[in-house]
Amino acid sequence: MASPRQLADLTDDLLGEILVRIASPSDLARAATACVSFHRLITDPTFLRRYRSLHPPLILGFVNGNFEGFQPAEAPHPSAPAGHDIARAANFSFPDYILPGRWDYWYYCDVRDGRVLLESCSEEEWVLPDLVVCDPLSRRYLLLPPIPVGQAHEQNLQCYDASLVPCADEDDEASFRVIMEMHCTTDLVVFIFSSGSGSWSASTSTSWDALSLSGLMGFSRLCFLCYAYGCFYWKVRSRNKLVKLNMNRMEFSTVNLPPGHDERQCIIVEEGDGRLGLFSHVMHETSVYYYTSMQNNGKSAIEWQMKNIIPLPNDYNALQIISARQRYIFIMGTSKFQYTHTCFTLEIKTMKIERVSQITTFGFLPYVGFPPSMSPRRI
Fold this sequence. Notes:
Radius of gyration: 22 Å
Strand content: 35-45%
InterPro entries: AT5G49610-like_b-prop (IPR056594), F-box-like_dom_sf (IPR036047)
Domain F-box protein AT5G49610-like beta-propeller: 109-321
Shape: globular
Protein name: F-box protein AT5G49610-like beta-propeller domain-containing protein
Mean pLDDT: 83
Order of helices and strands: HHHHEEHEEEEHEEEEEEEEEEEEEEEEE
Structural class: mainly beta
Organism: Dichanthelium oligosanthes
């Protein structure tokens, strides 16, 4: 009798094609623990980038802005089991292992790609903070060096805001960047920190006059920071405008919004094929408006076309957009029947609205993305 044929060993390419089709990131995380070859393939940055491009990220939970810890997504949300795994494995009590800054307390600034950005700041608005980036899974952190701001800008500082820059597909999984936005009396100033160089390696500024924003009252002229196609966008308070920062050229410009957006909440997203998407909402209304961008006959100006009106859950009052993370818009509402706050996600591609969990406070930051322990992160 002829001996039975033996199955050929799976090549890495074929095995990768099988693993990338696992729909649940939680199941993929378990597969990574099955054997050395699975772990090597799944933790490869190229594989992870491809996986993220094919599957929506996990909504793991929320970091509470009042240092009340981590609140995982609640069942029946599909990310609830992974969220509870993160809650058990990570330490979000940062004062337990982070050295004090120049001041007594650390405060949350931002959460992205499994990292948390904290600041230790003075009660005086014009004093720049100490900044630290932490990985709550490894309990490791990096204290950022002082920002090399000039004396003129520091003396005229009115307010500031620090955020983590979203990772691009070509970025090293272990690297990160931080953007510091400074509102001075006459100028808008931006500094960029790179973990690769370990320094604030880029900076740019523009005058409020050049942006036609010198007449705005109040310290903070900009809000709703968003990132799309290598550019940052800020909504201008009480104006029908966005301020745009091109990160490649480090140049500022302005973008007009559709009429009637002076007081609206606005979130800019990547729609695909290089087009911008705009989610627009009037606080307390029960619908979100979605616009897509169109080039105006080849000119640099952008025209907007309303594409969809998305109804929001009707059992909630005080509905408002909180932020955007990866493929999701986060929306907070207060129940009409009891004083509880609930967070929903609006998935950008499908426009599907899904309840994530009840939230104890408005001061929260979404913790979204592939489980950080699966990629070779270092601080």
